[in-house]
Structure formats: C-alpha cells, structure tokens
Amino acid sequence: MAFSQNIARLRDLLKNHQVDEVKLLKDMSHQKAVVSVGSTKTLDPLESGRLIFLESSGGAFTCTLPSVGAGLHYRMMVTEHTPTGAITIAAGSAIIFGKINETEVDDGEDGPGSTTTTGVSNLIIGVSAHKGDWVEFYSDGTSWYIHGSSAADGAFTVS
User: Which residue from 48, 64, 118, 154 has the highest number of Cβ atoms inside 10 Å of its Cβ?
Assistant: First the structure.
C-alpha cells in the first residue's frame, strides 16, 4: 500500500475508532511490501515502492514496467540461483538509463546498461544470475533510471 493510501486508511480507522487495526498498521510499518513474480506480469503504479522478488522456475517471462510517472520506483531481486529462464524487464521503448555493477573479478566487459544518451528498452536477467542479484528502477516521469548489482559476469544484459 502506498504511503498516501496508508495515511488515508489510518485517518478512516481513527475516525471510526478501530484501534486494533491501527495497532496492526503500526506493527507492520517496519516491513517492506513485497510482490513475488514468477510469470508474465505488468507492474501496477500502486505497487511502486515494493520489493519485487523474481524467480523463473516456470520458464522465461517478461515483467513490464508501467508507464513512467515521477516518483515511481521498484527494487527487483533474484530469488533463484541461476534462474531456469531469462527474465526480461521491459519498458516499452528505449527509456531505461543507467548501469548494473558486476562484483566478480575479471578483465571482461562490465557494467551492462545504457550508453551516454541512448537508452535501452529491456533489461534481461539471464540464467547465470545469482540469488540476491538486484536492480532498482526509478522514474522521473520521462525515463526509467537503474542501478543494481550482480555477482556474475554477464548475468544482466540489455536490448
């Protein structure tokens, strides 16, 4: 639930004297809202701010970002070591900018992502990704900006 929705719900609960539910909201305030995704899905702007757990045990799939909107953000984390199939995060057009850090030690090409002024349409999490690899998406209303980290060389690619 988005922060503004929580505030509105809290006001309603207080107005109606539903103290038990107010205590429940307070007790859960330290928890991050999560969504588990294992098949084709289009993210909803109402899911902004959530941690998206990604696993592809059912095979490759696409997770589509919503239309850009200032302040929208998602953190996505791989929950399967060497996923069964590739997971494509799609923006619909070349509006993804930023890079993914690779923490392995080699002298190969690192930091998949966009070039200086050219965005990409898709971020692809490949089958060499490690459990715990992650990427964050932030929108300013015109583009998506990413940063993230992978423990494996070439686990993230772009198209």
Answer: 48
Please tell me the distance from the alpha carbon of residue 72 to that of residue 154, in angstroms, as a whole number: 27
- Beta strands of 4-128 (E only): which ranges? 34-37, 41-42, 51-54, 61-64, 73-78, 87-90, 96-102, 122-125
Q: Tens digits of per-residue pLDDT, 114-152?
A: 566 789 999 999 999 999 999 999 999 999 999 999 988
Contact indicator for 114, 98 with CB cutoff of 8 Å: yes
In whole angstroms, give the CA distance from residue 137 to residue 69.
12
Q: What's the mean per-residue pLDDT of the chain?
A: 85
In a 3-state reduction of DSSP, which class is residue 62? Answer: strand
Question: Who's near 110: CB < 8 A, 6+ residues apart?
Answer: 101, 102, 153
Going from N- to C-terminal start, the domains of the chain cover 1-31, 33-158
Q: Which of 36-45, 68-77, 94-103, 133-142 has the lowest mean pLDDT?
A: 94-103
Supply the pTM of this predicted model. Answer: 0.78
- Cα–Cα nearest to 52, from 72, 29, 33: 33
**Main-chain dihedrals φ then ψ at residue 102, nearest 5 degrees:** -115, 125
Q: What fold characterizes domain 33-158?
A: Jelly Rolls (2.60.120)
